[in-house]
């Protein structure tokens, strides 16, 4: 179950990142974050009411609030990085944040088996190589890398926090709802400050109504990924769940190749292959 839900997380995050990266090329990143997460809040609110999730309220929801504060910073940094640099390069670097939940798992006493440990090393190396690392170039490229590293550790912190925010399915709906409400509040405040400083909140043509389905997909896919990761981490070793969930950059790179025709270099193809080998080792261990 851990491997299945963690791989589902990778698929959902990978597609959400691809969609978010495309949207921020036409719409300010803060607006993408606020609108997409607002749609997720509405859907989650309906789920909480329908399942009676309010009964699961407790002190553990502070973990969801913390995740909600860190999340918008990470998403904003990552979407800006995706808009600045090739998705196939930026996205894999974002997986470095896996060090946060893996470290938490090790501190809590988890000890992967030999096969799983090898799988972790192979998968992480593969994901990093899947980006075809490019640390040389124009200042824009260096800025994209800096933003990606900031986002990576933010995403890792969110993964660790949301796992602690619930222990039941209905509690998970409530935790995700609280996280997203906090996301929207923090992102909305940042958007307000940005507009007061003269930055545009919308593209030149006004609100991108045609992009509303894509914004909804990004918000819902992102929240679903948080949910599947939480389930994966609660039903198996966090070290394994976190690494399998971190394979999402491969999905983003493949989507960029298929839709945007971004060419994969030999090192990227090799990295994707290593990530697949690491996944098999982790799942079989």
How does the major sheet shape up? Answer: none
- Please give the alpha-carbon distance between the first and last residues: 13 Å
What is the element string, with H for helices and E for strands?
HHHHHHHHHHHH
Secondary structure category: mainly alpha
Rg over CA atoms, rounded to whole Å, is 18 Å
β-strand percent reads under 5%
Roughly what percent helix?
A: over 70%
Q: Count structural domains.
A: 1
Unreliable segments of 5+ consecutive residues:
135-140
Using the alpha-carbon principal axes, give the shape.
globular
Mean pLDDT comes to: 80
| Total count of helical runs of at least 4 residues | 12
Number of strands: 0
Description:
- By secondary structure, the protein is mostly helical.
- The protein has one domain.
- The chain is 76% helix and 0% strand.
- It is built from twelve helices and no strands.
- It has helices at 2-23, 29-51, 61-84, 87-93, 99-107, 114-129, 139-164, 169-196, 212-234, 238-245, 248-259, 266-284.
- Helix 1 (2-23) packs antiparallel against helix 9, helix 2 (29-51) packs antiparallel against helix 8 and helix 8 packs across helix 9 (212-234).
- It is globular, with a radius of gyration of 18 Å.
- Residues 135-140 have low confidence and may be disordered.
């Amino acid at each position: 179950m851990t491997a299945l839900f963690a791989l589902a997380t990778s698929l959902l995050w990978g597609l959400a990142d691809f969609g978010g990266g495309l949207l921020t090329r036409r719409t300010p990143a803060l607006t993408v974050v606020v609108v997409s997460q607002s749609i997720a809040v509405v859907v989650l609110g309906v789920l909480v009411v329908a399942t009676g999730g309010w009964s699961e309220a407790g002190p553990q929801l502070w973990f969801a609030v913390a995740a909600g504060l860190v999340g918008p910073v990470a998403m904003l940094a990552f979407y800006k990085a995706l808009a600045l640099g090739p998705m196939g390069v930026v996205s894999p670097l974002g997986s470095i944040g896996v060090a946060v939940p893996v470290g938490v798992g090790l501190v809590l006493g988890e000890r992967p088996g030999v096969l799983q440990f090898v799988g972790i090393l192979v998968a992480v190396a593969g994901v990093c190589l899947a980006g075809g690392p490019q640390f040389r170039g124009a200042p824009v490229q260096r800025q994209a890398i800096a933003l990606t590293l900031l986002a990576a550790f933010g995403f890792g912190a969110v993964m660790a926090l949301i796992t602690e925010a619930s222990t039941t399915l209905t509690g998970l709906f409530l935790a995700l709802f609280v996280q997203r409400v906090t996301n929207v509040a923090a992102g909305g405040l940042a958007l307000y400050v940005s507009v007061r400083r003269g930055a545009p909140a919308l593209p030149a043509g006004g609100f991108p109504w045609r992009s509303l389905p894509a914004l909804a997909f990004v918000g819902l896919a992102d929240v679903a990924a948080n949910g599947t990761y939480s389930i994966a981490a609660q039903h198996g070793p966090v070290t394994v769940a976190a690494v399998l969930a971190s394979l999402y950059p491969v999905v983003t790179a493949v989507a960029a190749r298929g839709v945007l025709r971004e060419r994969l270099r030999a090192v990227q193809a090799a990295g994707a292959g290593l990530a697949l080998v690491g996944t098999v080792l982790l799942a079989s261990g």
